[in-house]
TrEMBL record:
Function of the protein: Catalyzes the epimerization of the S- and R-forms of NAD(P)HX, a damaged form of NAD(P)H that is a result of enzymatic or heat-dependent hydration. This is a prerequisite for the S-specific NAD(P)H-hydrate dehydratase to allow the repair of both epimers of NAD(P)HX.
Ligand binding (K(+)): N60, D124, S160
Record key words, sorted: ATP-binding, Isomerase, Lyase, Metal-binding, Multifunctional enzyme, NAD, NADP, Nucleotide-binding, Potassium
Gene3D superfamilies documented for this protein: 3.40.1190.20, YjeF N-terminal domain
EC number: 4.2.1.136, 5.1.99.6
YjeF C-terminal domain: residues covered: 225-500
Protein name, entry field: Bifunctional NAD(P)H-hydrate repair enzyme
Record bears the keyword Nuclease: no
Annotated gene: nnrD
Organism: Hymenobacter lapidiphilus
Amino acid sequence: MKLLSAAQTRALDQATIQAQHITSADLMERAAGAVTNWLLDELLLDYDTEIQVCCGPGNNGGDGLVVARQLHRAGYPVQLWLLPAARHSTDFTHQKQQLPTGLAVRQIAPDNLPTITAGTVVVDALFGTGLSRPLEGLAAALVRHLNDSDATVVAVDIPSGLYADATQPADSAVMRATYTLSFELPKLAFLLPQNASFVGDWRLLPIGLDAQAIQNMACAIHFVTADELRGRLPKRPKFSHKGTFGHALLLAGSKGKIGAAVLATQACLRAGVGLMTTRVPAVGYDILQISAPEAMCLADPATDFLTELPDLTPYAAVGIGPGLGQHDDTRAVLRQLLETAQVPLIIDADALNLLGAQPELQQLLPPDSLLTPHPKEFERLVGEPARDDYHRLDQLRNFAGRTGCYCVLKGAYTALAAPDGALYFNSTGNPGMASGGSGDVLTGLLLALRAHQGISPLAAALVGLHAHGRAADLALPHTGHAGLLASDIVRFIGPALEELMDE
Ligand SMILES: NC(=O)C1=CN([C@@H]2O[C@H](COP(=O)(O)OP(=O)(O)OC[C@H]3O[C@@H](n4cnc5c(N)ncnc54)[C@H](OP(=O)(O)O)[C@@H]3O)[C@@H](O)[C@H]2O)[C@@H](O)CC1
Ligand SMILES: Nc1ncnc2c1ncn2[C@@H]1O[C@H](COP(=O)(O)OP(=O)(O)O)[C@@H](O)[C@H]1O
Ligand SMILES: [K+]
């Protein structure tokens, strides 16, 4: 799915109206109808629920007017509130004229704000994608009034006051929605941790926006769904053998962190690699052989950390990082790997920290390498804290462009920046993954996919990120959020990948 800017959303609106020979009022009727249906079918409004619909002066307010009309006609006790404004959109004015006479119109004023009681549902139709500046005055007072209440707030399209694709000034008033109902496509703002308390639970409501127009829209930011990935992972041919799926090498572990090497190894095996060799310091040899008997193990001459790079000739891809530690000798192994590797590299955890501590090593990164930092590792990598989540995404895209590598930013909606500037957000996963070891599993999974010759670097990264979160989602009913361990993710990698395979 494309994540369109506010201007593109307006253009799509117009393209739909032209392509489908409808009026903007028809489209508004559809949009509002989808909101009304969601309120009735998903929120399960009953006839006793007090519903306050708050409308601004533009088309977002127009949507609110139609929702109020539809709910009123269906017999629900709606109270309709309008924000005074110097100008109103044409469609707002049109919809206001369609209001049934029995539906009272109340003007919002400093001394006349909606009264919220227990169970009140507020429909926030003040401002949508046409927001042009931070809220102030009466609009800000209303939003603060509602934020201080216990109302269930359902935001139409986007919480009022929230910019769709930029950070609003600090301390500006933004609605804290319980639910946000976005038309057809999500907005970039929904995917960023800084906006979680405004956006609440977000849902997409299809309203028949023109598919061809969406396809024609130039857009470098994507929210990746299972539908878009299905078929990107080749089915295993009948006469395949272990040589078909590549031989992966993992460099991982140090004393006390051999578990990271074990988890990444198990994940790589479960992701279908043909052959797997894991290089660990000598202290990890027995542990690895026992916990991952399908993998071969190469012990380093040193006991507690890696000091030597093995011969890379047999391997189709190399992963480095989980549990590695940051010893000087290990840094020399990383340098040697970067200087000599002729195959795809996956770089994670302490290998990223070593790259952050010695930025000159970053110039050695082979193009198309895949780096998998979480935000703190990413900050160390680029050597500069981000001002906010948007700035961090800019840093991510710059890093990918500068190095020619694919760079991940792990989180609830993990982002992937490609060297060509495109940005992809993963759509799977759950907060049960927020515990040690989940990232090590991702490294192993991605390593297997990069060792596979039949998958492009981009497809490997997208399929890997998706399957990682999906495996955790499949594990969830068996474990619950608190009980979800990294090893549970490993167990469901197979089924998660199977869902994406060619028929
Ligand atoms: N595209 C789609 O898919 C569909 C879109 N639809 C709906 O249309 C919505 C977009 O509508 P929209 O463009 O009319 O903008 P909207 O958000 O109502 O605000 C504009 C008004 O607010 C004003 N204003 C702005 N900022 C302000 C501020 N801080 N403080 C005070 N005033 C401020 C601004 O005035 P001005 O900036 O000119 O002073 C203008 O009057 C979209 O979110 C969705 O709900 C559906 O109906 C159909 C499908
Ligand atoms: N709230 C969340 N929702 C979805 N995925 C999450 C969430 N928290 C963490 N994850 C995922 O779990 C993994 C954690 O990786 P990382 O921080 O490297 O952990 P570790 O180093 O302990 O293995 C990442 O892939 C991240 O996207
Ligand atoms: K809104």
